Every structure is written in structure tokens, then in C-alpha cells.
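Suppose a colleague, Dr. K., hands you the sequence of a protein chain of 320 amino acids and asks what its three-dimensional shape might be. Before reaching for any lab equipment, you can write down a predicted structure in C-alpha cell form. Begin with the sequence itself:
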Amino acid sequence: MRQENPMISIIIPVHNEGPNIRPLFNEIAAVCSAGGNWEILWVNDGSTDKTEEEVLALQPRGGVCVYLKMRRHFGQSAALACGLEHARGEIVVTIDGDRQNDPADIPALIEKLGDDADVVCGWRQSRQDDWLRSVISRAANRLIGAIAHVELHDSGCTLRAYKRKALEKLPIMGEMHRLLPAYLVWSGARLVEIPVRHRRRVAGRSNYALIPRIWKVVLDAILLEFYFSYMTRPMHLFGSAAAGLFLAAGGLETFVIFRKLILGGEWISPLFFLGLFLACSSLFFLFLGVLADLTVRNFMATSTVKTYHVEKKTVLGNVE
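The predicted structure, expressed as C-alpha cells, is then:
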């Protein structure tokens, strides 16, 4: 593989996108035919329509199509993780399978990758979604940015280009595919965002339930904040909680003693039992922090768990 002509892997997660497979492939092939060493990885995320038949009927020329069939519907994050594991390219491009992303924007993303960028994210301009989806998406982007501490206008745009080295040993679970830029920035990667086109869906049906998806993304953003701050030192989080509860318990019991000795109150009172409860909770959080710390250390040292299972892999075209 020549450095001036690196292989490009284009990962496309698809779920019941049969009518979009051939038109999307033709568009991508037209973009890639200008030159370069490329492969397209179609990750079938438990489709029940003719997605498989459409992919296997493709006849790539000048590049390679890799078909990965997952055993069931695991979700887009798992599909992207599957594609990343099997991708061979030095540059990895991700794109939705519904044709709302324009493959003609791929060269601009790749061109922007260089010494100053490890990941280039698409920012959908003139979005063709309905007004409710657009409003909620913008609000979610601001909320995710505030939680994950990354300035990104469009965290939901799948059209992105990555340097392969930036994605090594990257855990992708839940709805974390939307938060990859935040994770990469946290790990030291350099991020650039450029405007891309957005098109209306012309075939197939949307696979997303808007409100549940936004809620899941927000929860994952909170988890990511925990991951950034305490993944390697959970004892600091639980220890801080234990210290706060212990101080609160001490304050309550001090007040109970003051009230008994100075004001003539009773020893046994709801405040006394509340202080005792907080003190016990403090010990609980302290021991929980110890267990979490030991669990994290063991997990990081031994984990080989995957978030998906591949049923079949088929390569179409000539592999050099």
C-alpha cells in the first residue's frame, strides 16, 4: 500500500434499506472511480427485507465490497464497531445507508484529513427533515455539547472521515457512535467540522424513534462524562460521595448533640436516625468505590467482550 494512495474503507450500516442499496452503491462507486484504493463494507444489522439480496447482487469494479451479516438487530453502534473491526483502510469513512448523506461530499472529508485533523465530521446544511426533528436535534446537540464538553454542531451526522490510528481500541456501545467525536477529542485527536449536503429520504422508512433516541444519546453523554472523568479512578467519584454523606451525617449528629445539651431536646429523633442513615450510606459508597475500582482495573486488563456477533462475511470483487 502506497502512502500517497492509502486504502479507503467506507462503512455503511444498513437496516431494511433494500431499495437504497444499488443507488447508493452507484453514487459511491462514481465518486471512488476517480482513483484510489477503496472498499465498501456493508453491515447488515438484522434486516428483514431484501437488503442481503441487493448487496450480494452488486458487481464492484475497481474496488471491493465486503458484506457483513449480523445475527440480529444490534443497533447502529454495534454495526459500526463491526465495520471498524473488519475495515482494512488507513482512512475510514462512515455514511448512512438511507441516501440522505451525499457521497459526493466524501472527497472533501478525506481531503480535510491531514496533519491538522484526525477526524472530519460532516455538518448537515439545509436539513431536509421535518421541523420537529430538526428542532429536537439542535437542542440535543447543545445538550450533548454541554455534557461531553465538545463543540460540535451536528453530533447526529454519520458522514465522517477518520484516520484509522485514531480509532484503534475504541469502545463503541449503546448510542456511542454519535459521541465518537467527543471521545476522540478527549483522547487527544484533532477534530474538524465541515458543511455537507443533506437530502430527503426517497426510499425506505426511517428506523429511528426520535424521542427515545435522543434520551438514549443524553444518557450515553452522561456516561461518557463519567468515562472521561472517572473511568480509571472510580474511587474518586464514590469517595467524594462518601465524604459528602459523612460530612452531612456529622453535621446532623452535631446538631442533635447541641440540641440535647443546650436546648434540652431528645436524643432519639428523626434527625438522629437520618444522620445514622447518612453515615451508613457513606460507608456503602466507600466500599462501592473500592469494588468499582477493582472491577475497572480487572476489566481493562482482561476484556475481550464484543457488542455484536457476525453470522456471515462475503467479499465481492477482487482483493489485491
